[in-house]
Amino acid sequence: MGLTHIRTPKNFVLEDRLERYAAAIEQRPETYRGRWGEACSPCGDAARGGATCGDTPCSSAPRGYTPGFGRVHLDLGCGKGAYLVARAQREPSALFIGMDTEPICIAYAAQNIVETGLSNAIVLPRSADSIERLFGPGELAGITLNFPTPFPKRKFARKRLTSVDHLLSYRRVLAPGAAVTLRTDSQPLHDFTLTQLDAAGYRVLWASNDTRAEHPEHPETEYERRLAEQGATVYGICATPGPEPTPEQIQTGRDAEQSLVAYLPRNLDSIGYIPLGMEGAVLNLRNRQRNERAHNH
Ligand SMILES: C[S@@+](CC[C@H](N)C(=O)[O-])C[C@H]1O[C@@H](n2cnc3c(N)ncnc32)[C@H](O)[C@@H]1O
């Protein structure tokens, strides 16, 4: 899982898990592009767990009942699914789709869905790069990016889920007025994201330096719990697509795809908490700054 190793129990066999919780995993998600809300019936067998996606109408639906979810929400980089499950429990009339590239995360998230008996949540083993092959124009009512892998190095900047090109692809699948919400422990990733949102023509609806206090409507994620214990602040940004960006605007965003070190404050001794993935970089830079100060002195 990106920068941190996922500890698995001793007897954890990935293939077994994926098979056991297959009811909550959609292996051919491209099939449902543009019709997730209708294809995944809310009257699926809850005991089985997982939204029931398919082309056969739901037989247990009452007469006159129109199957389908009114809203489809994507939790991109869902990890082990705590956030996905909590939102799905709270909002039964919406379909919650989790997506992750890491099979272990998919297995855990699917287990979580099945064991909770949810019929409005499902996970897709796919990368953010495939988003337009999975969702039709305007299909999503919201995208959440909770503690996305920061990819601090410049050469991996395009992999950041808030890079301008990712944000441009989200624009194409978001419904009018729908928003992308980022939450992160990383002030550099937060500041980088503001440059990219601007370049991709988004309008910021809210930005917070303490989303736990100011936006408690967002359930806690696994990473959030761990990082908060280590003293992390949770930054958040919620933004919606505005007018189409110009090619020059987009290029400005690509030019800002630097190492996240460029977004650190100048005085590194002022940082109390080092964001996930930047421990080595911050310690090296701090030592360098201290050596330079000693040398000048
Ligand atoms: C730091 S974890 C956070 C997990 C979860 N959202 C949380 O807050 O606990 C980041 C997750 O993003 C996933 N990820 C990274 N790049 C991705 C991509 N391009 N598409 C989908 N998932 C991705 C990783 O596999 C990992 O599970």
TrEMBL record:
Q: What InterPro entries does the database record attribute to this sequence?
A: SAM-dependent_MTases_sf (IPR029063), tRNA_(Gua-N-7)_MeTrfase_Trmb (IPR003358)
Give the keywords, sorted: Methyltransferase, S-adenosyl-L-methionine, Transferase, tRNA processing
One GO MF term = tRNA (guanine(46)-N7)-methyltransferase activity
GO cellular component terms listed in the entry, alphabetical order? tRNA methyltransferase complex
Tree of life domain: Bacteria
Catalytic activities? guanosine(46) in tRNA + S-adenosyl-L-methionine = N(7)-methylguanosine(46) in tRNA + S-adenosyl-L-homocysteine
Report the EC code(s) recorded for this entry: 2.1.1.33
Give the matching SUPFAM superfamilies: S-adenosyl-L-methionine-dependent methyltransferases (SSF53335)
Kindly indicate whether the keyword Aminoacyl-tRNA synthetase belongs to this entry. Answer: no
Q: What exactly does this protein do?
A: Catalyzes the formation of N(7)-methylguanine at position 46 (m7G46) in tRNA.
Name of the protein in its database record:
tRNA (guanine(46)-N(7))-methyltransferase
Species in which this protein is naturally found:
Enorma massiliensis
